[in-house]
Please model this.
Amino acid sequence: MESGPQRDLFPGALEMMILQSLRRAPLHGYALAQLIKQSSGDLLQVEEGSLYPALQRMLKAGWVSAEWGLSARNRRVRIYRVTAPGRKQLAREVSSFERMLDGIARVMRPSES
Amino acid sequence: MKWHRMRRDLAAEIEAHIAERADELMEGGMREPEARRQARREFGNATRYTEIGGEAWGWPWLERIAKDLRHAVRALRASPLFTVTAVLSLALGIGANTAVFTLLYASLWRPLPVPAPRQLFQLRRYAAEGPWTGESSYSYALFQQLSATAASLGEVFAKETFAARKFGADGVSNERIGGEAVSANFFSALGVHPFLGRLFEPGDDSVLGGRHVAILSHAFWQRRFQANPAVLGKTILYSETPYTVVGVAQAGFTGVDAEAAIDVWVPVTSAVEKGWLTEPNVQWLRLLVRLRPGVAPARAQALFENTFRVHVADKLMPDADPHWRPVLEAQHITLRPAAAGLATTGHKIEKALLLLMVLVAIVLLISCANVANLIMARNSARQHEIAIRLALGAGRGRIVSQLFSESLLLSMAGAAAGLVLAEWGTRLLIALLPQPEVPLAFDLRPGLAVLAFTAAIMVATAVLFGLAPAWRAGRGSAELGLRTAQRVTRTSFSGRLLVAGQLALSLLLLIGAGLFITTLRNLNAADLGFRPDHVVMFDLSFPKGVPSRPAWPNNSAFTSQADRRISIAGRTCARSVNSVVWRTCCAPSRSVPRPIFTPARFMISSPAMARSPMRRSLSMPTAGKPSLSPSSDRAASVAMVGTAKAPRSATKSAVSRSMSVACPMERTPNAAERRTASAGWQCVATSEPARTASSTAARISSSEYWQRSRASVGEAMPPLAISLICEAPRRSSSRTARRTASAPSAIVVSVSMWHTQPHWQACGRA
Model:
């Protein structure tokens, strides 16, 4: 299912970024995509559409909740917010991500270790 | 449905996303169509994301199957010619397989509706070789000895060799039913419960005249008595003897013969004369045993064999004819699993059916190849469609699964049509089988086993013909398919292989079918020794209170009376014949060359039987004396024997030899009479080549003719109820027809009045 656009990210990365972005404020899909794009400085090649399957999975897992609201342009959109399990999940993912980064860093720069 | 709403929400959300982006772009100064295009490009494949996102909800695999099936139905409806061809082709293949399997299952494998059928075994008297093929019959004395032997191992129970019986409920027995006499422990050992009333109890079959009580089968009770519970206590006539109905057996139980449906059971000792219970030479029972759990069949078999050997040495040997002794020596008791009952017919036709199974499997393979070819041709015509689907982002797995579901749908339709065809096919197969006297009544309801079998071959065929083409189609590339707008007509290697395989299989099938048809034709065209067409068989029934035959001065007076009385509309000639048709097998004669009796079924005809009009009417070619005269030949104890498969030379050489008649002995109550009976017969003629009249009579009597018409013979004679059993204009083989073209074509054969008459009179003994 996760073929194509998400190929460049490791599994769970997108979910982590979404949770992180939503932690600051509830957002609708488009705003979320813009936020991730901007905050990554356009470094990540993420197709906007690939957000949605991820959001659906997270909705099902109960990490985010969604309700219909209005966007800044007065359009009917779904606004997502992080739930308590979502926060826990984020903490777990961040810590494991950091461990992974740490490990990779050690491999890449063996002299410092 | 939640997932459905979720999906709608998702689609709306994605549209909103794209619109937002387009708005933003337009705010940046872009024109609307441009902005929309740009927004969509940035978003990616919206349809695909909607699908993937939606899959988080519900059961994606189930839904995908449903989608595939919907699509398949549409695709198949779009090409009805292809669909009909494929379905018919598959229906033939699957139907033929199901038909043969149904018959195999019904005749050999369907377990009896009793608890723990695997504990049941048949006691066979088996001889590895020799002329006596053996129908595994036992005398009552031997049954009792074997029962005593088995007391610690299990329970031996007995039933009479199955045959048609006369039945009546209102004083006249003019109905034919399937009935059998069974030992009192028959039901209890099998584990059959009464549906109504009681089943047999230990006292019912006491040797000192068993009680005249009868049990009805559930089906017969429903059919004949409209399921009226008041039948209990009613008096019925069974074999012209009154019996009291005491019970109805559990629903669905119709005896232990797979091919026969028993309607009435009576206790084994009530149905026969005393001699049958004491005389060790009267072999008339089939034995079964239910072994206790944990008892090894081999151990039981060894014990039975011991008892049998002692019995043979003590009781049978001293009295036996010299030529009969090696036969007795060669026989051993073996246990054959009887979880499916006796399956007598089943074991006879097993090999032929298995061969047929192979043939129809080849038919199925050919249909598969056929359909696979069709599908491949269709798929190459659909390459464009497939390429578009690939380009739209369909996974190869999806393409394969979609094409495969078309195949599955085809084979499902094929299986459904096949089940209908199979029903006919099974009937056809049964019609081709040699018919015993009582019509074959296999339980052909498509049970779970048959349906499972059909489902299995359905899936197997779908895999066989569908998977390879689907796989090939899924492998094609989108670009190639789109670019080559023209149809790809190149014949693929696998396509050529299929055609070659199909040809090879067809050839194989042709050879197999040829052999099979030859066998079948030989079977049906076997010379019966007389013309079977326009032969009518009837049976005389004596109502209660009418003096039975001995009251008439003699047989010939009786038969000549009957001759005069009986006439059948539109037919000029009606010859009644006294004959005893022996159905049981007989020992080879001392002085007649062996081949003559090897078929184990022959007919001793009385002089009366051989009277020339009778013989002429039956167009029975004979060797030796052309006809027997009732008066002189009777005194001389002559016989005309029908032979089967005997070489002409052997048949001729039998003439004028003296022979002993072993068969009637078995039925003769006392040994002294037996000896006089068997001594001094001389064979004056043999009908040749001849299958026996008994087997023919059996062949031509088919159930639909039973009770079709009844006629009263008139006033001067006691009112005889005549049941017209059969009128079967059977196609005779061209050979017979040529030879007997000028023969008259109507005849009435009467089979001896077995249960009412001292049969020696009927046999015409000197």
Summary: Strands of chain A lie at 27-28, 64-70, 76-82. Residues 1-7 of chain A have pLDDT under 50 and may be disordered. Chain A touches chain B at residues 1, 5, 28-30, 33, 47-50, 52-53, 55-57, 59-60, 71, 73, 75-78 (CB under 8 Å).
